[in-house]
Write a structure and sequence with these properties.
- There is one protein chain.
- The chain is mainly alpha-helical and about 90 residues long.
- The protein has one domain: lambda repressor-like DNA-binding domains (434 Repressor (Amino-terminal Domain)).
- Helix 1 packs across helix 3 and helix 2 crosses helix 3.
- The longest helix is centred in the N-terminal third of the chain and has 16 residues.
- The mean pLDDT is about 90.
Length: about 90
Amino acid sequence: MQAGAKSNRGWGPRKSRTPNSIDRHIGARLREFREARGMAQAELAHTIGVSEAQIEEYEIGAARIAAAQLFRITRVLGIAASALFDGLA
């Protein structure tokens, strides 16, 4: 592997990922629901066991939310997972 290249389990160097419209939409909806409940990013992060920076990454669409985290987030916010997808065409 070349210096500075990140491992991608043998599939070559990793490409940097830019947020796509679905990731941004889900992140924006997450932020809306979190803020509507008066919950800080730090509180949500602590409750589901991730860093505050990770919540920020989710909310701007820079990181995809794993299924297990999606389940935890929706339980804490008291919403159905489908609510995060509302509005997608």
